[in-house]
Amino acid sequence: MSAQRTERLLNLLIALLNLLIALLNSRFGLRRSELREKIYAGGAASDAAFGRMFERDKNDLRDFGFDVETVTDLGWSSDDPGTTRYRIGKESNRLPDVELTPDEWAVLLLASQLWEQAALGTAASNALRKLQAAGGLADVELPAGVQPRIKPAGQAFEDLVAAMHAQHAVRFLYLAGSTGREEERIVEPWGLGSRFGQWYLVGFDRGRGAKRFFRLSRFTSAVTILDREAFTPPAGFNVRAELNTLPELPVSDAVVDVHPGKLLGLRKRAAAAVPPSDANGKSDGGWDRLTVPYRDAEVLGEELASYGPHVRVVAPAELSAAVQRRLANAAAFLATPVPPYSFAHAGTGKRTRKRTSEDQLKRMLQLVPFLVRNQGLPIDEVAERFGVTRQELEGDLLILICSGLPQGYPDELLDIQWEEGHVFISQSMELNRPVRFTVDEACALLTGLETLNGLPELAEGSALESVTLKLMAAAGEEGLRAAALSGPEVGPGNSANLEVIRDAIASGSQLHLVYLSAQQDTLSERDVDPLRLYSLDNTWYFEAYCHSAAGLRNFRLDRIEDLAPNGNPVSSGIKPDGGFPAKLFTPNDDDTLVTVHLTARGSGLADDYYAERTAPLEDGGVVAEIRFGNTSWLPMFVAQHGGTARILEPEVLARGSRDWIEAALAQYDNG
């Protein structure tokens, strides 16, 4: 949205605060002439221009949760502008009261926090604040050892969700599984969902004139949203039902050569290693030949590409091509000039989308009912709950206290005070109930609740089912559209290890484990004090104090070779930091600061690795400063991401990744 239109929309929305109050306190709407005079204030040069602006803005208002109703004088045609009035319904635009038990609040908090770093994270927070305004705050504790998260498929996921909810077509380049060629696709995005550990787009392919499934891992370009290309999805569309029709890919065998003693994780999944031989039967002692089962050449290709010169693919040709393509894309990206960038005005911490006037208006519409329901909260706590600074919050409050009935008296204005650091509202002018859920908000919570069905300890209780039914009833039509999004299954693959860890956390017992470190390619034995369990999609981790490393570490459950209590109580005295969700790693001040260049497709990696500073680029990419405790695996990182990430500084690490890629490609050149 252009800066000019955003500013005009801000003016419209601020004026609508006064207009909304007027309409809520009267039975009548306003004629077009009154709207033009009160809201647009000469912004349209002609009646036709005003009409286009008003129709476009009505659609924008609908996205905020407001439907502008049309009322006509009795006996007159709705086409007569002199007798047609417009209003915002007093009840139809409000969220129904939703009373939740503490158990239901706990489940709902888990569902909302699934989307920590996704497009729906902000929507989930907005929805929670609306529920808190409708039903009050609740002091609840999250279930011990249950902290699931959803990891969307990069920037493509963000853009597809936006296009899907706005009902705009999208364009992208796609690696076709049937031909192995990169092709441009224009698609109407009907739904997004996860199946077999992969994210899929389901939509109407305009080029082929039929419904198609697209794996997001096969997107080879950024997604372009075609703002002028609208569509209507099929009635009753359910992406989970569509994805359930997809058969799982058959198991195939890959033949790969691996350097002796390397890649322990790959060897675990492979048949017994044998030395490869040439056409004359002569053995090549420099390699071990493995037969590795796989289902998806692109998924295995991503893993094998990261191993660089330690592996070469013998067969099939499809897998070899997948590996070489990633390596070649990485090499091409490494060879491109470094774009100009500057951290001079970069923010710190997690990348955030620049706030707009629309965000401010959404916040103000949530703020009034929230304050009405939660009188006397400290202003700093209110700011924290809304994710803004105190200065930004006070700016919102200053706008609100100037809003009320048009040409009204002082007692017909919103009355908000924040003396001595606590916020009170004594005159809410009928804005005391939250606006109904938007589609994004309904999707964020209802999809999160559906995802939690994969956790037995939640699915077996009544709170998950009851809160889902309550939200469906409250969300109404927007809740039905949540069927267009479906998250991954988050149930643990190894429930035995999970139970051992959970019991140890509850009893305060140490654990002894044999662990495979994929980055260091080694097995190690450790004694740890377990702290908490969490998941990222269907991959489970546990955070623990490692006595060998003398620090906090995170361990993947599927890389544990052996696990058992060692008979000792925990002794470190370390507690979880209380933050949610747990971080996969916590950078230290003495870690190496690495400057990483990410393309638009790979920009989400800056959040995944907790970038300290980011500098946006004109092409949608980003340069990020990230701290790494172990830098030896960074060449694997560059190769794995196949042309979406490269190291800029320190130069020794950048050179190491270039050498890694070149050595890996040379094996195929010589083959």
Précis, in short:
Helix content is 36%, strand content 24%.
Question: Could you explain how this protein is built, in words?
Answer:
The protein is α+β, with helices and mostly antiparallel strands and about 675 residues long. The protein is about 35% helix and about 25% strand. It contains 21 helices and 24 strands. A hairpin with a 4-residue loop joins strand 18 and strand 19 (about 550-555). Helix 1 packs parallel to helix 11 (about 355-375) and helix 4 packs across helix 14 (about 440-450). The relative contact order is 0.12. The mean pLDDT is about 80.
Number of strands: 24
Largest sheet: 6 strands, mixed
Oligomer category: single chain
Provide a count of the helices.
21
Q: What tags apply to this protein structure?
A:
single chain; 671 residues; alpha+beta; six-stranded mixed sheet; five-stranded antiparallel sheet
SSE map:
Elements: H1 3-24, E1 30-31, H2 32-40, H3 47-63, E2 68-72, E3 84-88, H4 102-113, H5 120-135, H6 154-166, E4 168-175, E5 182-195, E6 198-205, E7 210-215, E8 224-230, H7 239-243, E9 252-258, H8 264-269, E10 288-294, H9 297-306, E11 311-315, H10 317-335, H11 357-373, E12 377-378, H12 379-385, H13 390-400, E13 415-417, E14 422-427, H14 439-451, H15 456-459, H16 463-475, H17 477-480, E15 485-486, H18 495-507, E16 509-517, E17 522-536, E18 539-546, E19 551-556, E20 560-569, E21 592-598, H19 605-608, E22 613-616, E23 622-628, H20 634-640, E24 645-649, H21 651-670
Parallel strand pairs: 5-15
Antiparallel strand pairs: 1-3, 2-3, 4-5, 4-8, 5-6, 6-7, 9-10, 9-11, 12-14, 13-14, 16-17, 16-20, 17-18, 18-19, 21-23, 21-24, 22-23
Helix pairs in contact: 1-11, 4-5, 4-14, 4-16, 5-11, 5-14, 9-10, 9-20, 10-21, 14-16, 20-21
